[in-house]
């Protein structure tokens, strides 16, 4: 982003907030609100992102490797690179890491505020192999459910 921002203003640069004022739009701002302050729901004994697919949840519950932590992880996971699936030319590991770490903090705060009696583990998975950008994932599960089976939830 540094090179992109420094090209603005006849080479004098521009800060991120000013850049958003120039390039952003309200449709995207509303969409980003669902990512940056998501709606979480309590369903049975699970905390899930609103709009979850019940059929998928039931399918994961039937898995031979079923445990509640892994089910919550896979139901709630978000591939950071897929936020803008049609913008592969501008995606990079540094941008994904920045967004993923910020989203991790946001999810921790939101879950703690909304479910103070249900502590959660929020994970931003940063793969060792930085070339596969889709592998950067954010997810969470309730600590009382134990640990996930592996980094991919199952």
Relevant terms:
single chain, 154 residues, alpha+beta, three-stranded antiparallel beta sheet, two-stranded antiparallel ribbon, 41% helix
Give an overview in words.
The protein folds into 2 domains: 1-31, no CATH class; 37-145, no CATH class. The chain has 6 helices and 5 strands, in the order H-H-H-E-E-H-H-E-H-E-E. The protein has helices at 2-6, 16-23, 26-36, 54-61, 68-76, 93-114, and strands spanning 40-43, 46-49, 78-79, 120-125, 137-142. The protein has a 3-stranded antiparallel beta sheet with strand order 3-5-4. Strands 1-2 form a two-stranded antiparallel sheet. A hairpin with a 2-residue loop joins strand 1 (40-43) and strand 2. Helix 4 (54-61) runs antiparallel to helix 5 (68-76).
């Amino acid at each position: 982003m540094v090179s992109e921002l420094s090209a603005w203003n006849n080479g004098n640069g521009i800060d991120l907030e000013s850049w958003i004022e120039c390039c952003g739009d309200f449709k995207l701002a509303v969409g980003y609100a669902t990512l940056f302050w998501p709606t979480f729901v309590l369903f049975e004994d699970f905390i899930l992102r609103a709009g979850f697919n019940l059929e998928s949840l039931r399918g994961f519950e039937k898995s031979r490797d079923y445990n509640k932590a892994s089910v919550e992880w896979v139901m709630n996971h978000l591939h950071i690179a897929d936020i803008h699936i049609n913008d592969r030319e501008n995606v990079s590991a540094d941008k994904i890491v920045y967004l993923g770490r910020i989203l991790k903090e946001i999810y921790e705060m939101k879950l703690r505020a909304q479910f103070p009696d249900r502590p959660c583990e929020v994970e931003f998975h940063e793969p060792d192999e930085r070339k596969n950008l889709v592998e950067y994932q954010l997810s969470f599960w309730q600590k009382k459910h134990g640990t996930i089976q592996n980094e991919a939830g199952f």
